[in-house]
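Entry 12.
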Amino acid sequence: MREKILRRNKKIISIFILSVVILTGVVFAFQKNGQMRQNNKSLLDEFGESGFRSIQRDKNSEQEKDLRNYSAQLVLVDNGADDNSDSGDYNSSKEQKLGVTQSLNFLAEVGNSLFGIKREMIFQPVNKMIEFRENTTVSKIIKVPEDYSTIQLAIDNANKRDTVKVSAGEYNENIVMKEGVNVVGSNVLVISKSNKFFEKKKEEETELNSEDSELSSVSSLEIINETIIDGGNSGNVVTFKNGITNKTKLANFTIRNAGKNLSGILIEDSSPFIHDNVIMNNEYNIYIKGNSSPIIQKNSLRFGGKGIQVYNFKEEKETKTTFTNVVSSPIIIDNLITDNKIGIDLYQTSALIDHNTISYNNHYKTYLGATFGIYIIGSSAEISNNIITDSGICDLCAGVNIDEKSKGVTLSYNNIWNNKNNFVCFGECILEDNNISEEPMFIDPANWNFELQEESSLIGKGRDGSDIGVRW
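Predicted 3D structure (tokens):
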């Protein structure tokens, strides 16, 4: 009896000690989380950003599997050279992360050996509590110019899930985006030629692009956003880099004047969501490279050397067992891409190109070089439900041109019409029977209205009975 009581008391004391240690670990984790949130990083970000590069492994493979399933965010102990912080901060952060990991692993071992408690029962509650705190954190709206005088200052002082809301006006900036921070401008305006405001904008654009007057051509009706980011011909206007995800969006701006050989929007190793913008008068209106899969939706891209350039120089990196290539895979959907030299240019990449109107990519027939609606080199693509018209005046110009190195290019439910050459393919292409070549019957393309007339044969001819071309 006495031995039974001693065993029971020992068990109670052990449970009490274990509970205290767990509570201490949770408090420490929340303290660390609070400190890191002040630096725009959450505990989940810190412990999960590089996967399982370096972890405290359990000898039991099943337990290690459980650890991976339930505790990914809490077992990373070293980011090595990927950590960009100062060395002092990095070493301190490393020690704290290592301390949390070792404490939790110790608790898991004690719990398992004394009471048969599985590892996930130690790690999972901490994960859930931190997730709850992360998901219930209140986001805020930062206003420009009320709170900060520039867009970049607002971005620099924003946290994840915050929104930078920019009032109407012109901002002469070159901005760099931050993960998880949305940046939005005002709504789209349609401004007629009779409007003095439009005349003023036209004069400004002509002056800013005096070196290349063909980029300054405008029709009698402009689509323009009243919130303008002007790069002043001095650099990429908006830059996304270093792993920005689709949780970060840019919307409702006019983005213009990057300068020679530069981009309205540069996307490098990132996958943001870019929608409802007018992107114009840039050598590359959107330039995508590296490991990037952005969503490009409902934008007007015009008066550029290239509407969208997706470029990857694929270096084969030999390891002991495999070769690896970095390839972008953007989603390009519901965009109006007009009056560029090339509408969409794919180089050694892949893309989904769906429900776009890609027309007049020849700078009003003033550019005598080779121009194309879609130009594909060494790439694969799914091209569907697009209108591709009036591209180029030279013998080599084409609505769609695919080189001999391209494979896996599929075209379905497109209308390819009135290009110098509608379709040229030297590679492996599938041109399905549901593609057509008919006049789209835009309402008034000369005045920038690319909606379809009611009697257009493209209405209801897309996949699943949708209209071909943009749907806005």
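Annotation: The helical segments are 2-38, 43-48, 61-70, 87-115, 119-135, 151-156, 196-208. The first strand starts at residue 141 and ends at 144.
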